[in-house]
Amino acid sequence: xxxxxxxxxxxxxxxxxxxxxxxxxxxxxxxxxxxxxxxxxxxxxxxxxxxxxxxxxxxxxxxxxxxxxxxxxxxxxxxxxxxxxxxxxxxxxxxxxxxxxxxxxxxxxxxxxxxxxxxxxxxxxxxxxxxxxxxxxxxxxxxxxxxxxxxxxxxxxxxxxxxxxxxxxxxxxxxxxxxxxxxxxxxxxxxxxxxxxxxxxxxxxxxxxxxxxxxxxxxxxxxxxxxxxxxxxxxxxxxxxxxxxxxxxxxxxxxxxxxxxxxxxxxxxxxxxxxxxxxxxxxxxxxxxxxxxxxxxxxxxxxxxxxxxxxxxxxxxxxxxxxxxxxxxxxxxxxxxxxxxxxxxxxxxxxxxxxxxxxxxxxxxxx
Length: 367
Ligand code: OGA
Ligand code: NI
What we know:
With 367 residues, the protein is α+β, with helices and mostly antiparallel strands. The chain has helices spanning 2-8, 15-25, 28-34, 48-54, 78-91, 104-118, 122-126, 174-201, 208-211, 281-286, 343-352, 359-364, and strands at residues 67-69, 94-98, 138-142, 156-161, 217-225, 235-240, 246-251, 257-261, 264-267, 275-279, 296-299, 307-315, 322-323, 341-342. An eight-stranded mixed β-sheet has the order 1-2-10-7-12-5-4-3. A four-stranded antiparallel β-sheet has the order 6-11-8-9, with no helix packed on it. Helix 5 packs across helix 8 (174-201) and helix 6 packs across helix 8. It starts with a helix and ends with a helix.
C-alpha cells in the first residue's frame, strides 16, 4: 500500500516511529548501553557513504593542530602569542592552549561533574529531558538534531545557557551546579583574553569583539559519549562547524575529536591541561574570511570507558544586532563575501537544520 510505503520510507523500516520511541523513552544512549545491548539500534546506523568518509581520509600522522603557550600573556611575549593565534586561526581554524590560567584541578572537576550528571539514574535525568530551549536554561537530551538527521549519533548532551548572566543557576542540576558556575567564571575571564588575542590578530583593537557583545551569549554543552559496541557503524558527533564566534572545548583523555585540514581528518589529540579553541561561522563572516571556521567531528567511542567533553560557545548577546563583514576587511580588491543579517535570524536557521557541514555560511554568502 502506498501509505505504508511512505511510512516505511527509504530505510526499509518505520524509522520515524523508532526515533520517536527512543526520544520518548528519555533513556539516552547511556540508558541503552546500560540495558546491555551488544549491537546498536538501526536508527544509529549511518549510511555507507557517510561511514566511508569517516574512514580513508584519516591521516594519523598528519601535522597536529598548533598548541600555543599562553604564559606571560601581558608581557613582551604578547605579540608573538598574537601572531601564533592569528596563524592558527588562518591556517587551521583550531588550536590548543596551555598555561591559560585555569588550574588543572578545575579542569578535572568540570569533566567529573558532567560525567556525574550523565551517570545518574535515568529517572533523575529524565526531569531535564526536553527539546525546547526557549523558556528553559537547562536541557538534557540525546542528539540535538535527532528529528532532522538521517541517522542518530552515539552521544547524550546536557545544555546550559550561561550568558549574559547565569540567571537560573538554581535550575542547573545540583550534581554539577557549583562546577558549572565555577567553569563559567573561568570562561568569562579566559574568553575575554581570547577575544582580545583574536581581535589583535585581525588588526583590530583588543576590545573590538568584546564590544560587539561576543562574550555575552555563552552557552555550554556537556557531552557524554558512551562506549559503542559497533563503533564502525555510527559516529559520536557528525561533521559540522560551530555557528558562533569562538568555541572553548575541554576534553578528557579518551580522544576521538577530528578536524578537517587540507582535505584530510586530523586527530585533536588530548593534551593534559590544554583547552581546544576553534573559530566559528560568525567569526568567519565578521572577518570576511580572514579566519575560517572548520568542519570537525567525533568518532563513535570504541573504548570501554565513556568520553566526556564540555564546550562553551561564545556568541553575541546582542541578538537584534546586525552582523556581517566588518568594514576593516572590505576593500575594492576584497569585496564583502557575505550579506548582513540579525543574529537572532542566524540562530533560528541553525536550530532548524541538521548538524551537517557549513550550510549556514553558505546561506549568507554573496555569489
Ligand atoms: C561541539 C563539538 C566536540 C567534542 O559540541 O560542537 O564539536 O569533542 N564538540 O565533544
Ligand atoms: Ni563543534
